[in-house]
Here is the input.
Amino acid sequence: MDKAGALILLTMILAMTHTVYGQSSAPAAPDAPQLSSTQQGLQEDLQKATQNPVASLISVPFQNNTDLNIGPFDRERNTLNIQPVVPLSLSENVNLIVRWITPVSFQPDITQAKLGTVGLGDMSPSFFFAPAKPGALIWAIGPAFLLPTATDDTLGTGKFAIGPTAVALAQPGHWTIGALASNVWSVAGPSDRPDVNLFTLQYFLNYNLPKGWSIGTSPILTANWNASSGNVWTVPAGLAIARVFKVGAQPMNASVGYFYNAVRPDNPPSPRSQIRVQISLLFSKAPVPAKH
Here is the structure.
């Protein structure tokens, strides 16, 4: 699939997403009551909570990433990330936010027009310590891990890695502006597998619109510090739209985005672009204080 095809596919997904939203949230009749200012404020509070990686909000996102145009045969790689986020209260002043990413992937054999490997990838748990009552600047720090859980060598590193992670953001007005970064180094694993020294930076810029809609960007930049010169960085750029809505009584958040890799490694070949589709179950509940 070339870039034009990816854009066409993205347009189709956006159209289908709009249709689903229309079914779950039909336009109000001219004489129907509108949301009160209080209801609109609560809706935006939930929007902002979904954009805050360390909010007091239990969420279970299912994020599907389709990487396009890899290698000489323009293969596609697909990764479904199941990444629950659970906040816990350690004390009156400190919360612990557990973020656990479990990838299920299809990795194509890029030397052929067909064939590939399907299975579980390396899990990536992170543990953020955050103030229970943040100020205008919301922040958290903690350890990040890479666990060698892949079911096939092509789906993971084979290494156990650890390092620091941190997030900082602000939410003035209708905006959410911030970044989440981590760097992990391998400390154990088979000696015949390459060492890991991986930096990840996800910056996010979102603007909240009426009726639960938002638009923004949240590309994930990576740097493989062990790669050869010219093959270290992957730098995507793009946009996504999202909406908070309800299915019955269950709050949910859905988003779809397209990202083009403006900088990418040539060795090994990397995708030219990515389509990201995410659906999240939301459980708006403050963390329960831990018993001591």
Residues 3-24 form the longest helix (22 residues). Residues 168 and 277 are 24 Å apart (CA to CA).
